[in-house]
Amino acid sequence: MKLYDAALSGNCHKVRMLLSMLALDHETVSVSLPALEQKTPAHLARNPLGTVPVLEDGGTAIYDSQAILVYLARKYGSERSDGPTGGQWLPTDATGLAKITQWLSFAANEIWNGPALARAVLLFKRDIDLAQAQASARNSFTFLDGWLAQHDWLALGRPTIADIACYPYAALAEAGGIPLAPYGALNAWFRRIEALPGYVGMPGLER
């Protein structure tokens, strides 16, 4: 198994976390985004969108962090069973799958367009409306904080790939100029994730 990875990417970090939590042996191949290695013919053959992460597993290549989480959880997480609904990280029943998918969409939309883009402006000098991204982040965090005040985990009452998908860019939000101190329940959720067996950090998340 091989992960094409960029150290500062929150999307890559989602995959690194789940690989570690599932104790899966893999090779990591660093892709330099500033050098545009993600746009080389070799990488475009793996992922025609020219992005990271990309996971190669035998003859299968998967791109998009949410898709990779689904793949890993379904293929390698099923041995951690929770009964008739399937694996711990991704259930098989329709309701459970829908609940997880809601949060994968939240990660790809609200989290990406808020804290992830705000961080990209300040850290990578992206030409994006910083004020709009920060406002979107605050709206998302208000919602998340309210939800997490009533729930330990985002879905199904246990850690799932929903939590892994939403965690990195939310936890990195202060790099985008968004204070996290006002969100007590959100910060408590960060600590719960960071206490999970196999958790790994990244630059900006060394706590």
**Which blocks of ≥5 consecutive residues have pLDDT under 50?**
80-86
Helix content: 40-55%
- Helix/sheet category: alpha+beta
Shape: globular
Q: How many domains, in number, for the residues?
A: 2
Annotated CATH architecture of the largest domain: Up-down Bundle
**CATH class identity of the largest domain:** Mainly Alpha
H/E topology pattern:
EHEHEEHHHHH
Mean pLDDT: 94
Roughly how many Å is the radius of gyration? 17 Å
Q: Strand portion, in percent?
A: 5-15%
In order across it, which strands form the biggest sheet? Answer: 2-1-3-4
Number of helices: 7
User: Which fold name fills CATH's third level, the topology of the largest domain?
Assistant: Glutathione S-transferase Yfyf (Class Pi), Chain A, domain 2
Distance between the termini: 28 Å
**Number of E strands:** 4
Main pleated sheet: 4 strands, mixed
